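Consortium newsletter contribution from the modelling node. Members have asked for a concrete example of what our holo predictions look like. Here is one, prepared for the methionine sulfoxide complex that several groups have been discussing at recent meetings.
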Amino acid sequence: MQVDSLLARLDDMVAGGESFDSVLETAVRGVHELDPRFDWTGIYELYPDDVLRLGPFVGSPTDHVFIGVGTGVCGTAVAEKRNQNIPDVRRISNYLACSTETRSELVILIRSGDLIHAQIDIDSHQVAAFDDRAVADVQRVADWLARRYQARGACPGR
Ligand code: SME
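And here is the predicted structure:
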């Protein structure tokens, strides 16, 4: 799927009054289908206790359902308030392995300015899978989702 079609589909869902959870699930599935190099795609939502909690995902189940801010690639993105594009996770000491096959990982924050709502996390079995085009596409979906999080009242539980 192309990102334009995905965003149009998400707009239609909102216009049709679909639930936030359905929209989120469709977004995750849509992102996963943007690129065959995406082997695991999920959303982690940031809760007020500074813990990321796994939301909808596509791919193998992971043990990392809760991740503290500052822990792993996902928690580092929040702590540093910066997206993470890790070309080779084997070179990262602060990395939480979901699959031994994962080689590269992308975390794009879903944020409204300094307020972080959640993040899109993608793993690939290929080294350096996330080129500029992939990053830009995922960023567009993250920015779209940030507006939905903002509209429903900031972070989950906040
Ligand atoms: N690798 C992540 C953990 C999440 S799994 O990739 C699904 C991390 O280091 O934070």
